[in-house]
Write a structure and sequence with these properties.
Elements: H1 7-13, E1 35-36, H2 63-66, H3 72-88, E2 93-94, H4 118-133, E3 138-144, E4 157-159, H5 162-169, H6 171-180, E5 184-187, E6 191-192, E7 195-196, H7 201-211, E8 217-220, H8 228-234, H9 245-256, H10 262-280, H11 289-303, E9 305-309, E10 329-333, H12 335-338, H13 358-365, E11 369-373, H14 379-388, H15 394-410, E12 414-420, H16 437-449, E13 453-458, E14 474-477, H17 485-493, E15 526-528, H18 537-542, E16 560-562, E17 566-570, E18 573-582, E19 588-597, E20 609-618, E21 623-631, E22 637-639, E23 644-646, E24 650-659, E25 662-671, H19 686-691, H20 693-704, H21 714-718, H22 720-727, H23 744-756
Parallel strand pairs: 1-2, 2-3, 3-5, 4-6, 4-15, 5-8, 10-11, 10-12, 12-13, 13-14
Antiparallel strand pairs: 6-7, 9-14, 16-18, 17-18, 18-21, 19-20, 19-24, 22-23, 24-25
The structure holds beta-D-glucopyranose.
Beta-D-glucopyranose is lined by residues 37-38, 95, 142, 221-222, 347.
Amino acid sequence: MTPELTVAEQAALTSGRDAWHTTPVESAGLPSLTVTDGPHGVRLSAKPSDMLRGQPATCFPPAVATASTWDPGLLRRMGEALGDECRAMDVSVLLGPGINLKRSPLGGRNFEYFSEDPLLAGVLAAAWVNGLQSRNVGASLKHFAVNSQETDRMRVSADVDERTLREMYLSAFRRVVTRARPWTVMCAYNKVNGVYASQNHWLLTEVLRDEWGYDGVVVSDWGAVADRVAAVAAGLDLTMPGPDDAGDNELIEAVATGRLDPALLSRPAERVRALIDKAAARIPGDYDQEAHHELAREIAGRAIVLLKNDTLPGSDRGLLPLPTDGTGTIAVIGEFARTPRYQGGGSSQITPTRLDDALTEITATTQATVLFAPGYLTADSAAAESAAQDGETEAESDQDLLAEAVALAGASDVALVFVGSTHETEGADRDSIDLPEAHQKLIAEVAKVNPRTVVILSNGAVLATSPWDKTVPAVLEGWLLGQAGGSAIADVLFGRVNPSGRLAETIPLSIKDHPSYLDFPGEHGHVRYGEGLFVGYRGFDAREQEVAYAFGFGLSYTTFGYGQATATATPAGIEVRVPVTNTGERDGREVVQVYVSLPGSAVQRASRELKAFASVPVKAGETEHVVLAIDRDDLAYWDTRLDRWVVEGGEYQCAVGASSRDLRTTATVKVDGDDIRVPLTAQSTLGEWLADPRGAQAIAQAFAGTGEGWGPMAPFFADPAVMLFLSATPLVRLSGWEGSPLTAEVIAKLVTAVGEA
Ligand code: BGC
């Protein structure tokens, strides 16, 4: 409690002073804290009014890329580096990571989010938070919860059934909250099942604090609070941005008039005070810009996913990697090679300390002659072009650029074509996953004249690769890679880095195939999460649909073989062991993935779910014995009858492999289930009564009392078809039958008897 703070001071302490600072309470010795975005760099503005422009800081790869590393060790190092930059810039809380599930490839902030899978998102984000907070800088886990679209984000209600909510959309939050204890959690703008996240008592208090034991600060997203008193009563601590004098006054009045329990305001004030105390332990520091740029390059190199690398006629290996001592000519085509797309738009935009472009890095790496053609206009180059050419239309310029690029490609030994999405930004979803037409045309025309064409994609969210990927031998998924992306791309193209990135989201053949397609982005203030548990690959797998590139997929310049997996049940869960051999000639890194299923489960489940993974370096010709642990908690489903997590007993299949569709070895293990009992009531069906040993016994006794076996119902019970129908009938509905021993009184006794048993 904070007895020395007045109600007015408590109200002030729990709101911002401006966009990026909390309000100080000098009389109590409480200084202001600096908070800033986040998450792939420190975007500290020079003045609070500079909402979106930050001072230079390392622009690390956004989450779309870091997730593709599947490596919590790397994420931890990135968190540590960000912590060091925060220390150098006197920042107490960095606003990230964003861990909402990528429900649809159209999601405008997918570039800021990790995955369509909650385990992958949660494990990586927890490592990032642990790294950051090891420097005494707080994280802000966002956006709690179900902020998986930008359309109408400030008002829309995400309507999600509770099991889906728990197992999918809250799951990564639960993992990070319970395992990494972020100093703050940021509530989302949207409503969850009709109630604003900022005013949602169930979400902010019952789930987050009572169930998960969270004791940190819940901060609003910027401008997410519609009603400050309702928000504080629901469990929100800190309202941002500030100042919020009107809200402060409403709180003061609500306490004065008895509308708000004073404890509901002193508690958030106390939590903000504890946050200030924690931040006081931070010691100022400095960081090495060069070293952080190198780390950004390492992460970017690990994030690139090699989607395709065909062997060309007359060769015994894939087109990539290219030799560094090559002769001849390399055509670098596409404006993105010279002017990189390296991050998305909105609050996460970083002013980089420097910026590598692929064209310069490729030229510096190879002895071959490198020639460049822009190939298409970008928004910036189009503006410059039309100014220069005095009104010449964009289409004409694109035509000229295309012709120039095709001529260059035709005269070169290799063509490297850089294409991608033109923008992704906070605040707006995309309306298509297709490459811009000019980019598709460029690929088609270049591929016709040069069989040695590599496509390098720059994009913050999934792009359709079909059908153009069939026309080229090699494709690199280069995401948005941060400030060192250009050098990382050269590292992979020339084999200084052996690619080990794996897809953290499925690439569908068409957006129409996607599980979310018919229910995104909703209308009239509601979006229905109609696909339920079947988000991303879970939906594709359940329907056995073909995809372009499966979740978890990615090639390497070497190959890996899997031995037989074994699985053992332990009190903590399941331990899976598998030998993995590098069967090629280059050292490499394999991302070993374990997908679990429970055939014959009594509840609806995805065909397989990622339950463990490890990114493992394996030297050429060597074998690593990989051990993967699956937590028992992660086997549980949310039982809506019991309102709790339940581990179902049975023979679990642990399929181990290199993607959700490339499973190489399976081990089966028996897991004992939780001891649960679903209460039997008058509304339980006859089938449910008979399936429960105590219920069956009670029913048998009730009928035995009639002295004639099943009494007048005996003929019905003897007929299996009728029995099917009866089994599905609630007990209470059998009471009206003439001669039925199941009178209302008998049923009441049965319910009491099994309840007491
Ligand atoms: C975004 C948050 C961000 C905040 C502060 C909001 O618009 O949703 O992710 O941290 O602004 O810039």
